[in-house]
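Sample intake sheet
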Amino acid sequence: MNEIASQSQLRMSYLRWALVTVPAIVFLGFLSGRIANSGYGNRWFAELAKPEFMPEGWVFGLAWTILYIMLGLALAVILHARGARLRGAAIGLFLAQLIANYAWSPLFFRAHMVTEAFWLLLFILALSIVTTAIFARIRKGAALLMLPYLLWLAFAALLNHSVDQLNPDASSAVVPAFKTSI
């Protein structure tokens, strides 16, 4: 036997990574949204003028769940690629963009910082593009799993920018919840 690990052992190793990365990324995304009170149930957000192409609320929950699953699978592919050149950089960039992603909801929905959230989205998109390019050099499959995320980030940036343009005084429309004194 010339192999270090059999094909089934390699598949199981990937599955073990995926069993950790997918639930963790989905849960942390859910937690970020919950902490921020994101979505159409947010009083402040409900009062904002929205662009005509704004999807219904359920679309965001479904889209982000699917995207977070795909991100978890992409990360598992890279984590599984032991010994791959640039693996450490890819994981570091992935985690940086993911942390920035989780920060977007509190910045937009909780702090009401619409313009800053737009710039954060552009930063996330830029980091994600670089991450995807490095993923492609390690495993093409991981990069392919990132592509829907890149498209959604571009769409989210367009939505964020449109909301910002339609609501120039959005940050002062209602006092942000974390600044409220009781």
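Comment: The domain at 8-173 is CATH 1.20.1260.100 (Ferritin). The chain has one domain: 8-173.
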